[in-house]
Write a structure and sequence with these properties.
By secondary structure, the chain is of the alpha+beta class. The chain has 4 helices and 7 strands; from the N terminus they run H-H-H-E-E-E-E-E-H-E-E. 8% of the residues are buried.
């Protein structure tokens, strides 16, 4: 799945760069033979739509306006607000208690082989007790470590690794 997403992202980036290169070249041409940016601006000005300093393909952006990417818009959850275990997990334990739970957050438990053991959406803020079945506890405790991933809307997901005590 990760390979597919990586290749798809690379393909989209390559197509975006090709599209920008095709629409506007360094010498001011638009990619269409015989038509350049100055001719389009002059044509539009005669119709009363644009001023002389306006650009058809690259409109000016106000100096106070900043453009940010979607990945930059997602911020990290501060360490003081991150979901954490209240006590260390013992092998084949049936309950996990977490502190600082936030409503609407998705919690996913993975064993040492990165297999999903349990996935749940948190219903209330505060303390959270996760109860596992016997099969889930054995699957979670089969390796020396396990991890949990926390996903909150608008925030970057984070993963915490935990060591299992015997």
């Amino acid at each position: 799945m990760n390979k597919i997403l990586t290749s798809a992202t690379g393909l989209v980036a390559a197509l975006a760069l090709v599209g920008v290169a095709a629409t506007a070249n360094a010498d001011g041409t638009t990619g269409n033979p015989g038509i350049n940016n100055a001719q389009l601006t002059a044509t539009a000005t005669t119709n009363g739509q644009l001023a002389d300093d306006d650009s058809v393909y690259f409109p000016q952006i106000a100096s106070g306006h900043t453009v940010t990417a979607h990945a930059a818009a997602q911020s990290r959850v501060p360490a003081t607000r991150q979901l954490r275990l209240s006590a260390r997990y013992h092998q084949n334990g049936r309950t996990l208690t977490f502190l600082k739970a936030q409503r609407g957050t998705v919690l996913t438990l993975h064993n040492g082989k990165q297999q999903c053991v349990k996935r749940l959406t948190i219903a209330r803020d505060g303390r959270l007790t996760v109860k596992l079945t016997r099969a889930q506890a054995q699957q979670l405790g089969a390796q020396r470590t396990f991890d949990y991933t926390v996903t909150t809307t608008g925030m970057r997901p984070y993963t915490v690794k935990c060591v299992i005590l015997k």
